[in-house]
Design brief:
The chain contains 4 helices and 6 strands. The chain has helices at residues 29-34, 39-42, 86-94, 96-110; strands spanning 6-10, 15-19, 24-28, 60-66, 70-75, 83-85.
């Protein structure tokens, strides 16, 4: 996969702009954070991953090149172990709608929220 021609961090909007030769994409820091390719998020095996919640307000504090094949994104919540390859970034961009809807459904099914200040209240009879 070819690297983007331009990468721009919009810190105020908490978005990452990726300009590939054929198309531009804008990905939110929250979306990138909850889909981190790190072992911490994805796990080491097929079913080891965790569902990341409460990242509505997360931002990106730094981005560095990881060789010629990827970016290392440092989030302002301290998460910094994900290496986002060009292929994975393109996949996240092209499948954003599907992946985001699946993530929202997983949150709902688990009783979790995007906003870290929201909590579920269980009423007991």
């Amino acid at each position: 996969m070819n690297a983007p021609k331009k990468i721009r961090l919009h810190q105020a909007d908490k978005k990452l702009q990726l300009c590939f030769a054929d198309r531009e994409y804008l990905l939110s820091a929250e979306y990138l954070r909850v889909h981190s390719p790190s072992a911490e998020v994805r796990g080491h095996g097929a079913d080891d991953g965790i569902l990341v919640s409460g990242k509505l307000h997360v931002g990106i504090s730094n981005i560095t090149a990881a060789g010629r094949y990827a970016l290392q994104i440092v989030f302002d919540d301290g998460h910094d172990s994900g290496i986002y390859t060009w292929n994975y970034l393109r996949e996240l961009a092209e499948q954003k709608t599907t992946k985001w809807q699946a993530y929202l459904q997983q949150l709902q099914d688990a009783g979790l929220y995007r906003n870290p200040d929201e909590k579920a209240i269980r009423f007991v009879d």
